[in-house]
Design goal:
heterodimer, A: 5 strands, 19% strand, globular, B: alpha+beta, Muramoyl-pentapeptide Carboxypeptidase, domain 2, 6 helices, 45% helix
């Protein structure tokens, strides 16, 4: 039986199984159809129905259940999340597990399609070490990503000493909803 | 602790059962039953290889220990594990996955419970054991014993379809 205790490990293993079966397009299709459209349909219903309040409701439940370290910041026109200890990436790092190329892409892989459907765009960065930040705005709002500390103050994950070290590969997205909209490093 | 991968929290997040069910549905609808069974077998042989290695090294006691630890970390599971000299019997009185999927009003893939045979058999085969499953749809009985060509094969009809 597949369990939920080690879910992120066999979930990540599954990405690589799918990639071998049908290439990266199949992995993207899996994130969009199986995860965004089926598994996380409760998230989509909340976000499409309630906007920022739905985001807060969904992630407050799920990040608490997964014992994540995170903060939310809501200001006019923007909802921001700073994840200081990603529970699933942390599990993979602690157990030295990597089957697929970039596990972190799965978040944009399912959150992106949900936000697109709900009329939002995403500014986002992750450092592959269990830290990331997200800013969600209406797709009619052209505001750029905030400067470090401007929105979230001392909770801004970019102000951590370990946010970007010499070896860190930082993946960035601006006004995106697609996992392949990653900006070149 | 006999689990190969460990977390900082004692039990998993039950909403992940939604993703497991959705993954099975995705594979079934896109590629059919044989592909889904191959996925389960590949998981058993590859992802669970460290568990099989432990079973091969330490025998039936390791099998019993694994299932006790496994279900202890699954929220809502009610399971008894009985270790005999020739077999380990796992009585799943409340399957945590089926219970949570029902609680969340999810459409459960009808062949959901077959995962326990295909994954369990692949894990077992690598360790010189074989698995059999009876029941399903919320409670079942799983038996792990030494592989023996004289044993009748698993009857898939003995595994119930899952319903909401």
């Amino acid at each position: 039986m597949l369990g939920c205790y080690d879910f992120c490990a066999h979930y990540e293993w599954t990405f690589e199984w799918l990639r071998r079966e049908g290439g990266e397009p199949l992995v993207r299709r899996y994130w969009e159809e199986a995860i965004a459209g089926d598994s996380q349909r409760h998230a989509a219903e909340l976000i499409i129905g309630k906007g920022f309040a739905g985001m807060k409701e969904y992630w407050a439940h799920t990040l608490s259940e997964e014992a994540a370290g995170y903060t939310f910041t809501e200001k006019p026109g923007v909802f921001r999340s700073d994840v200081h200890e990603c529970p699933t990436k942390g599990f993979l790092l602690r157990n030295n597990l990597q089957a697929y190329g970039d596990y972190c892409d799965h978040c944009m892989g399912w959150v992106g399609p949900v936000m697109k459907k709900a009329g939002f765009v995403i500014h986002h960065e992750h450092n592959h070490c269990g830290q990331c930040w997200w800013e969600f705005r209406s797709n009619e709002n052209p505001a750029p990503a905030s400067a470090p500390g401007d929105l979230a103050g001392s909770s801004d994950v970019r102000q951590r000493s370990g946010w970007k070290g010499a070896e860190t590969v930082l993946d960035s997205y601006r006004a995106a909803t697609d996992p392949d909209d990653k900006r070149p490093n | 602790m006999s689990l190969p991968y460990t977390d900082t929290k004692p039990v998993g997040a039950a909403d992940f059962y939604f993703a497991i069910n959705a993954t099975f549905r995705f594979l079934l609808e896109k590629f059919g039953q044989e592909a889904l069974r191959r996925y389960w077998t590949d998981l058993g042989e590859s992802y669970f290889a460290p568990v099989s290695a432990d079973w091969r090294a330490r025998g039936l006691h390791a099998v019993a220990e694994y299932w006790r630890d496994f279900f202890k970390a699954e929220p809502g599971a009610q399971v008894e594990v009985e270790e005999g000299s020739n077999e380990v019997v796992v009585r799943v009185n409340t399957c945590p996955a089926i219970a949570h999927l029902r609680h969340g009003a999810r459409d459960i893939v009808p062949c959901f419970c077959q995962q326990c045979y295909f994954i369990g058999e692949a894990m077992s085969a690598r360790a010189g054991f074989t698995a059999r499953v009876e029941g399903g749809n919320g409670s079942c009985r799983q038996v792990f014993r030494r592989a023996d060509p004289a044993l009748p094969p698993q009857e898939l009809s003995a595994i119930k379809e899952a319903t909401c």
